[in-house]
Specification:
Elements: E1 2-3, H1 17-23, H2 49-62, E2 80-83, E3 87-89, H3 118-131, E4 136-140, E5 145-149, H4 160-163, E6 168-174, E7 177-182, H5 219-222, H6 227-238, H7 253-256, E8 262-265, E9 271-274, H8 278-282, H9 285-291
């Protein structure tokens, strides 16, 4: 894991950030930008697509500071960047570690377990109720901190990347610390600059509710190598409340364009089918960028 501070330090992505900066050229172009009509979950004033991009651009140009915080203004600390699985799954009966990585003892010198800590115990119960799946504390040796997630494999070293070899995730809600985790499967991730393969657009009226036309390109074949990093940047800068639509993130193109319905779980647990509106897509710039 490494800390992300300034754009120079982002060179760990081997220059792929440049492809993202190039994709922001329209921010300078003066083209009209449509406002989203559905406000973010926080009920704040409606943001434009331009506003979402500008804040991410600020992060790339200026890093993190009191003037340019991340995680929806909640953090001014340098975020972490991990490639692969950096966490070790723990159980509630494992020994509790402090923010220096040392074991915690009571006044009698007895080792305390994770389950002995009221904050950890309360969070465990809350997550169980929220996600209805067993959640585990995962320890980061680098951050000296726990994150909460499910089990991804038999080994305690098997994490998010074990289950998602070409994915990426941003861990929020870690106090004032934010961490981005990227997974790179060399057999599945393209390594090419933006625009290396010319796109061949398909007319919208050829889609409808039907299947993708024969010979159409797949987005995965033309996106630059840094697009997962780009996607996660929006979560890192804006936080989930302002970068994830009400229905949750959607990655299928026909679903993103509203041609195919998606399953949405309601507050009472029932599942209904809905189509994503154009405005909903626009308040999810990470997805909108990939489709565009």
């Amino acid at each position: 894991g490494v800390g992300i501070d300034t754009p120079d330090e982002l060179a760990i992505i081997e220059g792929e950030t440049i492809s993202f900066v190039a994709s922001l050229a329209f921010v300078q172009s003066g083209l009209p930008v449509r406002l989203a009509s559905e406000p973010p979950a926080t009920k704040r004033p409606i943001l434009s697509t331009l506003g979402y991009y500008q804040q991410v651009k600020n992060f790339l140009e200026h890093g993190v500071s009191d003037e340019f915080p991340i995680n929806d203004g909640q953090s001014t600390r340098k975020p972490w960047l991990f490639c692969g699985d950096p966490f070790v799954r723990q159980h509630m009966h494992d020994v509790l570690l402090d923010n220096q990585g040392n074991v915690v003892m009571d006044e009698r010198g007895n080792l305390l377990l994770i389950n002995d800590d009221r904050t950890m115990r309360t969070e465990y119960k809350r997550l169980q109720r929220t996600y209805r799946v067993t959640m585990y504390p995962h320890w980061s040796h680098d951050m000296k901190q726990y994150i909460w997630s499910r089990s991804y494999g038999a080994s305690p070293l098997s994490g998010y990347c074990y289950a998602n070899p070409a994915g990426g995730i941003t861990w929020l809600g870690l106090g004032h610390t934010v961490a981005m985790q990227l997974c790179y499967d060399v057999d599945r991730v393209q390594n090419q600059p933006l625009g290396a393969i010319p796109p061949r657009p398909v007319l919208a009226d050829t889609l409808g509710g039907r299947n993708i036309p024969d010979g159409a390109q797949f987005i995965a074949d033309i996106v630059p190598a840094g697009y997962r990093f780009t996607h996660e940047l929006f979560h890192l800068v804006w936080g989930n409340a302002n970068s994830v639509p009400r229905q949750g993130e959607v990655y299928d193109v026909l679903e993103m364009l509203g041609f195919r319905p998606i399953n949405v779980r309601k507050a009472d647990g029932t599942v209904v089918q809905e189509r994503i509106s154009r405005d909903t897509t626009l308040i999810n710039p990470p997805t909108y960028t990939a489709v565009a």
